[in-house]
Amino acid sequence: MLVREDRTFEKIVAGATGLVLTLLAVGWMTGEDPAQKPYLGIAGGGFIFNYREADVYYGFTANVLKPLPVGSWLVAEFEDPGGGPPLAVETRLHARSVRYGVRSPSVRGVKAGRPYHVSIRIYDYSRTELIWAGEKDFVSQIDDSVVPDKPLTIGPGYYPNPDLKGG
User: Fold this and answer.
1) Buried b (16+ CB within 10 A) or exposed e, 11-40
2) Reduced to 3 DSSP states, what percent helix, strand and coil does the chain have, rounded to the nearest 5?
3) Within a 13 Å sphere around the CA of 166, how many CA atoms are in the beta-carbon half?
4) Are 89 and 76 in contact (CB under 8 A)?
5) CA atoms 160, 163, 166, 167: torsion sign
6) CA gap 81, 119 in Å, rounded
7) What is the pLDDT of residues 43-83, one digit of tens each?
């Protein structure tokens, strides 16, 4: 009887060892190399049309995917739909935050269906060494002709704009 129980225990140990080795092999084969991950991932973005305030801008939300040096800078250059040089926005990255919202200054001249380019770069604390660079295009579904030239409302209470009375 004692011999039979020892063999059952040996079979259980051998089966468990085989299962662990198989799971380790599968994990090793399907694992991602952290060095191959980008520093940032774009979670979403697009155009915002605020017709009440006569404002149009676009932007994105970025998630930090792997650690960055302390004091790094995120620099985004948004294509100006109205023409002219790119609109640059800079944000200092902090160790306590892993998600950043970046938006362009106000823009005009947005055309539906046309891609607008954003260049995204991460620099070290002194802005001399480029750590990472990426690019993204955003397309609006509508023209900015839906936004009036002057705000429809003013102030925190959304009072009607007195400049628009009579017209």
Assistant:
1) eeeeeeeeeeeeeeeeeeeeeeeeeeeebb
2) 25, 35, 40
3) 2
4) yes
5) negative
6) 14
7) 999 999 998 889 999 999 999 998 888 899 999 999 999 99
SS3 of residue 160 by DSSP: strand
CA distance 18 to 27: 14
Phi, psi of 147 (to 5 degrees): -100, 130
Q: Which residues contact residue 161 at a Cβ distance below 8 angstroms, ignoring those fewer than 6 apart?
A: 150, 151, 152, 153, 154
Amino acid at position 35, single letter: A
Q: How many residues does the chain have?
A: 167
Terminal C-alpha separation, the chain: 102
Q: How far apart (Å, rounded) are the C-alpha atoms in residues 20 and 26?
A: 10
Please name the helix (run of DSSP H) or strand (run of DSSP E) that holds residue 64, with its range, or none. strand 55-64
Which residues have C-beta within 8 Å of that of residue 98, sequence separation ≥ 6? 63, 64
Helix (H, G, I), strand (E, B) or coil at 5: helix
Counting beta carbons within 10 angstroms of the beta carbon of residue 93, is it exposed (0 to 12), middle (13 to 18) or buried (19 or more)?
buried
Q: What is the pTM of this model?
A: 0.75
What is the 3 state secondary structure string of 83-100?
CCCCEEEEEECCCCCCEE
